[in-house]
Design goal:
By secondary structure, this protein is an alpha/beta fold. An eight-stranded parallel beta sheet has the order 1-10-9-8-7-6-5-4. It has a two-stranded antiparallel sheet with strand order 2-3. A two-stranded antiparallel ribbon has the order 11-12. Helix 9 runs parallel beside helix 15 and helix 15 runs antiparallel to helix 16. The chain starts with 6 loop residues before the first strand and ends with a helix.
Length: about 400
């Protein structure tokens, strides 16, 4: 069995960057389509997430951005739009179910079932959300053709909610699991892994993927990489994945990542010039090249005079400037994941030296849970550790306003 590696799936299909993908736009001599064969190695990436929540009315969206869902090389991940339903951006109506299913089968090769997350607009309506979800899953199970591999979904705001949800959906015939609502909630992450391990979902040969929705912090990358390593060591066939739009979303606030801090679990950043808010900035700049803060920036700096586009506050010029920032942020993400993956493979001596005591103990807990003969006992042993660390991180985030 080949070794599985954790896969980060960028969700860049919306907004300004989505527009650049449709136009197949180039920044300097390299494409915004980072999945193209001619993309620089620092940003080349064959995993991509798009969502029916934004595009289910555009039946041929995937052709518009030049992605081949039939290729074994590309992981084209389709989100069903459950999050948009939870926020109220899409009003739930049974009439959209068939449209979303058909869209996912045409525009992705791995997709999430159409669940109704019991959060945001649906908070306090857990039974109604679950009832609609079960009905949708029955529909998806019956109509799936095999062209797209669909994932079951685990939702819940605490362990008891997760158990109830899991018990109602576990019998469906799908090809893996997606976990919702665990971003920044380390105790929910641990309880979701506990439930799936306890019920031996990782040994179900049909389960090819374990996906965590909307998460991409340094700490979470560490958890997922450790989880993947532990699953590999027990002979599981599952690949661990997560998605986010963070490298693109951060650009809207002018956020440009400079490096990553492993000990504090944070990406560090600076604010890039913004002509709208700093109208005199161009006249005060003496160097038109991008600062070189990662390997990809060497190519970006040699190919792109960004002040030419900074002057244009509307239209493609400004989009290109923001697109270049997105690709830089994405390159920093990729560097971080590669480095973290290498550290997780090291001897425990080095991991103790590199990570904080809390993070090291959390990594031990994940490994022990996956390999445990008594998951109940292991969960009870470590659940408080996850809750306490989550509380510490929430305090740090609130005090620093570092939301990315």
């Amino acid at each position: 069995m080949s070794k599985k590696t954790f896969v980060y799936i960028p969700s860049f299909s919306g907004g300004f960057f989505g527009n650049l993908l449709v136009k197949n736009h180039y920044i300097g001599y390299f494409p915004c389509r980072f999945y193209n064969e001619d993309a620089p190695v620092e940003i080349k990436h064959n995993a991509f997430l798009t969502t029916a929540g934004h595009y289910y009315k555009k039946s041929n969206y995937i052709e518009a951005i030049g992605l081949d869902v039939d290729s074994k090389t590309n992981m084209v991940f389709g989100d069903s739009g459950g999050f948009q339903i939870a926020t109220g951006a899409i009003k739930w109506d049974i009439s959209i179910r068939d449209k979303i299913f058909n869209w996912l089968e045409h525009n992705s090769n791995i997709a999430i079932n159409l669940d109704i997350p019991p959060r945001l607009k649906w908070a306090g309506r857990e039974k109604e959300a679950l009832d609609i979800t079960i009905d949708n899953f029955k529909y998806f199970e019956k109509h799936q053709t095999g062209k797209t591999k669909f994932l079951n979904v685990l939702q819940g705001t605490n362990l008891q909610h997760q158990k109830n949800w899991y018990d109602k959906v576990k019998t469906f015939d799908f090809q893996g699991w997606a976990v919702g609502g665990s971003g920044g909630k380390y105790s929910l992450f641990f309880s979701s892994v506990y439930l799936l391990i306890k019920n031996k979902e990782h040994f179900n040969k049909n389960n090819i993927l374990l996906h965590f929705l909307g998460t991409s912090t340094i700490n979470e990358f560490l958890f997922y990489i450790q989880l993947q390593k532990s699953l590999n060591e027990v002979g599981s066939n599952m690949t661990v994945t997560s998605d986010s739009s963070t490298p693109q979303r951060a650009v809207i606030w002018g956020t440009y990542y400079t490096e990553f801090d492993i000990s504090n679990g944070r990406f560090k950043n600076i604010n890039f010039p913004n002509i709208k808010h700093q109208p005199d900035i161009i006249n005060n700049l003496s160097n038109n090249r991008w600062p070189i803060l990662c390997e990809f920036d060497k190519k970006l700096s040699s190919a792109y005079d960004w002040t030419e586009y900074l002057k244009e506050t509307t239209g493609l010029g400004n989009q290109q400037y923001m697109g270049a920032m997105t690709l830089h942020n994405f390159a920093v993400f990729k560097e971080a994941i590669n480095k973290l993956d290498g550290i997780i493979e090291q001897d425990k001596y080095f991991k103790k030296e590199i990570f904080s005591r809390d993070i090291y103990n959390i990594l031990v807990a994940i490994d022990e849970l996956v390999k445990s003969s008594d998951p109940d006992k292991t969960y009870e042993k470590y659940v408080k550790l996850f809750s306490q660390y989550e509380s510490k991180q929430n305090i740090l985030t609130t005090n620093s306003h570092d939301y990315f």
